[in-house]
Design brief:
309 residues; 14 strands; alpha/beta; five-stranded antiparallel β-sheet
Length: 309
Amino acid sequence: MFLCVPESNGSSPGRKGFKMAVTKNELQGSIGGGIMEHKFVAYAKELLYGKEVSSILKKQVHSKESMSNQSGMICSGDQTIALYKIQDSDQSEIEKIIAAIENQKSGYFTFSPNGIIFYDHSTETISNSFQIESENQWHYIEMIGFKNYLFIIGAGHVSLAFSRIMQLLDFHISVFDDRENLNTFEQNNFVHHKKIIDFENIIEEIGRQENQYVVIMTFGYRTDGIVIRKLINENYKYLGLLGSKTKVAKIVKELRSEGFDESKIKALFAPVGLAINSRTPEEIAVSIAAEIIKVKNDLNPDSYRGLKM
């Protein structure tokens, strides 16, 4: 059985796009956890061996005060869960989806009581959507492929730890450095793309597209300065600079004296990362990852400020 959350509201533990596969002996994924998920796993196993029902749509309300569709959880909000018995005719489409994910290709799939269909439209942007007319007439669309792109400029110890964390999230990750035979660069198998480059050409390597996040953590002050001057006028969703307050203050002073736009300077996330008194490369990586997640999920981008000085 295939379980999917095509719609969610409020503080629902199961968010739109959560998925789960249930077989007789195995579970993969999640639709939100807790007693609700336990209940739906049991329900899915019942449907799995039934002959009449191939798909069911269920709404779950996470409140004891609800008059119907109580999930057994009290976290508030609600979610809709679609249960679908995979058919032989779906096999080829599922294989296309798996191949697209493994090969980092874009596309989208549609999911309804009529089955699953994959579309390989790499140049077309499709918004995830859910349309419902009744429990037996509904249609869910979801993009396949990366929606966010992370560029890490510098491949030292923090970069390696940061890559390890970010590969767990929905980011396509690229790492660049200008040093040959760097052990932390060679050890970094957590990214999708890595390359030794001349930092003077960093713009050509990154390109320009939506949802780009850039973190500068090169070997030192000189190379940080080269990269920041190349990138500061670009419209990235996030541009961060790793370093002490002293180094950041010196670079910011130079940028101002050279006439760079003050709004661009203030938009820098520098020093990069949330202020959690992090010390080790791993702790610093966590602080940067947390800050990027905050920016990615913030519905009001004017509510945060980049420069921390």
